[in-house]
Amino acid sequence: MQVQRGYLKILVSGPYASGKTTFVRTVAENVLSTEVPVTTPGEQKVKEYTTVAFDYGKLYLDGIPIYLFGTPGQTRLQFMWRVLAQGMHGYLFLVDGSSLLEVYRARGIYTYMKSLGNYPHIIAVNKQDVKGSVPPSRVASIFNVDPAYVAPLVARDKAMAISVLKKLVDLILTRREERVVP
């Protein structure tokens, strides 16, 4: 399959602490991260470090160069989401599935991502290894999307993370082929 521009740019987006940095580090061969210690007291309760600009990772999937750009999760850094989205072919939207509250909190950011355009995307429900996690089918219902575009994820599991990424790449390539057909 020939890829326009010779690569795919994929955004890895989602709320704070949804697993974006972990995902990029798990799947990519070359990684650049802009993590700093968390200074906000409320956020310190969730994790020790946070992304302030973006995470970057490169890998090859079925011979296709994939450039991953992980967005910061804090809404105060929302201006970076639009900047990083420039030129993307699609995005992976990570949701913290460890609690129903986190799933509902993610809907606003998902709505924002959809406002950037009609890009191919997959919603990945992360932290499926946590007891009592919200199943992808429930997330699909809450987000009012086709369950075919929602996938389970454990961001630290390389095989599972690659499988979710491959699902997105296939979706991007399929949509591209559909646009080419007369």
Can you give a write-up of this model?
With 182 residues, the chain is α/β, with parallel strands linked by helices. The chain has one domain: P-loop containing nucleotide triphosphate hydrolases (Rossmann fold). Helix content is 36%, strand content 25%. The strands form two sheets. It has a seven-stranded mixed sheet, sandwiched between helices. Strands 3-4 form a two-stranded antiparallel sheet. The two termini are 18 Å apart. The mean pLDDT is 85. This is GTP-binding protein. Keywords: GTP-binding, Hydrolase, Nucleotide-binding. GO terms for molecular function: GTP binding; hydrolase activity. Belongs to the GPN-loop GTPase family.
SSE layout:
Elements (H helix, E strand, L loop, with lengths): L7 E6 L6 H8 L2 E3 L2 E3 L3 H4 L4 E3 L3 E7 L2 E7 L8 H7 L4 E7 L3 H16 L5 E6 L9 H8 L6 E3 L5 H23 L2
Parallel strand pairs: 1-6, 1-7, 7-8, 8-9
Antiparallel strand pairs: 2-5, 3-4, 5-6
GO molecular function: GTP binding; hydrolase activity
Organism: Thermofilum pendens (strain DSM 2475 / Hrk 5)
Keywords: GTP-binding, Hydrolase, Nucleotide-binding
Give, in spatial order, the strands making up the sheet with the most strands.
Answer: 2-5-6-1-7-8-9
Order of helices and strands: EHEEHEEEHEHEHEH
Alpha carbon gap, first and last residue: 18 Å
Structural class: alpha/beta
